[in-house]
Hints:
Layout: H1 2-57, H2 60-100
Amino acid sequence: MKHREATINILAGAAILIAIALSVNAWTLWNERKLVLEETNKLQTELTRQIRFANEHSDYKTYQITLLEKQKKLEQQVEHNLNLNNILQRLQKRHELKAFI
């Protein structure tokens, strides 16, 4: 009888050890899966960005036109800023003259 109880206890202990080992293994696999999913999402985002870039630049003529339009807008903005700067300088000179008088 005691021999059976000892055998049952040994088997129960072995079952607990196996359960712990399987739990640790499952936890490790879960963490690996999580890392793989994060990496997959990162790669998918990068691929989407590259595809979008390729689509935008597949037609060189259109790309060149877009760049020229952006350049024109920037040049207009620079010209506008220079005009504002000139106006500001004139106002400052007037203010200095009024203060001097």
